[in-house]
Amino acid sequence: MTSVGELLALGGAGLVAGFINTLAGGGSLLTLPALMLTGLDASVANATNRIGVLTGSVAASHAFVRSRQLDPRQVARLAVPTLGGAALGALAAAFVPTAALEPILLATLVVMALVLALRPSILTASPGEAPREPGPRALVELAAAGFYAGFLQAGVGFILLAVLAGRLRHDLVRANALKVALVLPLTVVALGIFWWKGLVRWGPGLTVGVATAVGARLGVGFALRYAAALRWLVLAAVIVLAVAVALR
């Protein structure tokens, strides 16, 4: 039985995670420990956490579509490689310790922080710059991001942003909109596999999920109102997440 204190901790973690996942990423590093504090082991917490990721993605995607910052047809073109990667990643996570991919995440975060601080033009499109169509390299990178999302999830938003903003040259608002929309179908795939493996606990997962959806809607409003500050928010989130992963 989950105590009142644990429910409050799950709700608070979900609210903050939904907000920062919409703006940048890394919210799962809040919700995963919160789920583990309720007594779930790492594998079950990793699986159960996908409920919150899913609800946050649904809420944020809906808000971005209504604000005309997201084209569902574009999402459909980019989703195919991420879905295949997510299925493989989720299957791997059922048998391999999730810590196996943390060095990859840490290296990605360090590179992103340096680029955002020293050469931001690489990851932030210039005003009026036209987005590029995804070529073979971008499709491979999206598949790799999908695999990572299916395997671990925490920090995948930064990996997707690196492809969407850096490779495909979307501005950070639209890159964030595409990011949360792409996370939605790949999370459905991963959650389905984890449910099939009997690793999902719906009670604590739905508690996190409701709070995450609320946080995600707040995050969309912030992103649209303060678009000019997004690069600095992403940089701050990258640094905090990198430190958290390194300390783990």
Question: What do you see in this structure?
Answer:
- It is a single chain.
- This protein has 248 residues and is mostly helical.
- It has one domain (4-247).
- The protein contains 10 helices and no strands.
- The longest helix is centred in the N-terminal third of the chain and has 25 residues, at 42-66.
- 51% of the residues are buried.
Topology:
Elements: H1 4-23, H2 28-37, H3 42-66, H4 72-93, H5 102-118, H6 136-151, H7 156-167, H8 172-196, H9 202-225, H10 230-247
Helix pairs in contact: 1-2, 1-3, 1-9, 2-3, 3-8, 3-9, 4-6, 4-8, 5-7, 5-10, 6-7, 6-8, 7-8
Quick synopsis:
The chain has 248 residues and is mainly alpha-helical. It has helices at residues 4-23, 28-37, 42-66, 72-93, 102-118, 136-151, 156-167, 172-196, 202-225, 230-247. It has 10 helices and no strands.
The overall pLDDT, averaged over residues, is 83
How do the helices and strands follow one another from N- to C-terminus? HHHHHHHHHH
Inertia-based shape = globular
The parts where pLDDT drops under 50 for at least 5 residues are none
Distance between the termini: 28 Å
**What is the strand content?**
under 5%
Q: Could you tell me the radius of gyration in angstroms?
A: 17 Å
Number of beta strands: 0
Major sheet description: none
Count of discrete alpha- or pi-helical segments spanning 4 or more residues: 10
Number of domains: 1
Helix content: over 70%
Counting helices, strands and paired strands, the structural category is mainly alpha
